[in-house]
Amino acid sequence: MPKISTHRLAGLLLLLAAGLPLTAETKLESKVETKFETAGPGKDRDAVAEEDPAPVVTAHTITVGGRTLKYHATTGYLVLKEEEGKPLVKSAAPPAAPEAKPEDEPKKTKDGLKPKAKVFFVAYTLDDVADPATRPLTFAFNGGPGSASIWLHMGSVAPRRAALTEDGEAPPPPYQLVDNESTWLDHTDLVFIDPVSTGYSRPMPKEKPEQYHGLKEDIASVGDFIRLYTSRNARWLSPKIVMGESYGTTRAAGLSDYLQARYGMYLNGIVLVSSVLSFQTLEFTPQNNDPYIGFLPTYAAAAWYHKKLPADLQAKGVAEVSALARAFAGGDYTLALARGDTLPAAEKQRIAAELSRFTGLSAAYCLQRKLRIPDYLFFSQLLRGEDKLLGRLDARFSGLRYEPGTDGTLGDGEYDPSDEAVAGPLTAAFNDYVRRELKFESDLPYEGTADVTPWNFGDAGAGFPNTAEDLRKAMTRNPYLKIWVTCSYYDLATPFYAAENAVAIMNLDPAARANLRFTYYESGHMLYIHQPSRIKFKQDFEAFLQDALHQQPVHAAAR
Q1: Which residues are CB-contacts of 514 (< 8 A; sequence separation ≥ 6)?
Q2: What is the per-residue pLDDT for 104?
Q3: How do the domains of the chain map onto residue ranges?
Q4: What is the pLDDT of residues 326-342, one digit of tens each?
Q5: CATH top class, domain 131-280+424-549
Q6: Per-residue pLDDT at 280
């Protein structure tokens, strides 16, 4: 599931969102050549597998908008390798003494590189494309930290998806796979990436997984995968898009600068699905008012959906209610929180009444909480009278409490009803699909959500984790980089107003800010599970892609 840390970086990481060597079972005859080395007659299969396990290539068709698309899926591993003296991530600390004997070290490949990790991926490539340089290429991943790409893969833009109800609910098991009428394959080739330790991705033998479990480490390893895939498939001249969801947006923003600075790879666009660039907007830590402000409009949307607001607000639409709550949150509420204990009693009463009006919680409770309602209390309090818990990933969903009448919250013995609504269908769909249709077999468990704690967020002295600055640098240097931020009214994991605020303070030049766009959906964190939102998501992507691919030159040398 697209999961993300929302409480106490140094403590609880509240989670959001290698296999056997294989050879291709289907030989695809196509104008598109796969560049991966395969084991053949006269080759040592184990040696080849150790360097680069051969992927499986399968042929498929799908009809989209009345047009039949022929494509091939490539499923398997890319091996990340390290050049001696040039680690993917440079450490400020002096090198530690080796723990293993030289004979225990992974053997170097014939090109002198040291295998470090096997990264699992599934790529979809349209057939009969005369010039790949004209064909966009989109790299997609989820977040976590510790989430595989299964959620975007099986719920969003791939040619096949798990069948859900129109609202995004799980049907009764057993579950089904269906063609995805909203796939992006008619506009772009797709590559779904599982970062190291997630999905089937694993470090090589005797390589420690911890070396990939960190903000910079993760960006470097995913960035190296993108470079390697692009090189092996001769796609350097193709338009390139990176799409991340949840913590994947943190990664995507970091990649924007990393790919440019490290490899000279300039992207055409970045899609930030349910965005979090600065953790200051999400972490309910002492003396940090930002999350209380950023979450409030989403509290209002959730309360509106469950009919907990006053009649005059219930009579409005969710967009209008959210806009009113946004105005209050960014105005009187921000000023009141900044005053802290110096706020006069009468003003506290007035703010508490307004807070109650937009959250559905009592004014007395808001006063008791000193005008500050953290997300985990909102999950448990809004529907407490019905003995239900509110969905965190998607506030449209609710579920029965384990212990009715208690204050149990997520991370304290309770669960996320919106997580449970989709985890079963998407997990079952992928595990069936990868073997039966993609012909990839492994007895390893597919880690949809892996335990990657402790995650190295970097130097605590620099404050909250924040890749907005990486994005600002990339946008400043690359005037053609288009950024698309998707926001959902019922997302209580990465609320839309927090995303807006993080972008608003990036201090972009007006020319760079013109390359940003926001779109809004009546859905949750995984906006695409809601059928109307999934359809709109594709329409919005088509507009974004046209904008990214049809730009006039910026005349930086003009006199």
Answers
A1: none
A2: 52
A3: 131-280+424-549, 282-416
A4: 999 999 999 999 999 99
A5: alpha beta
A6: 93
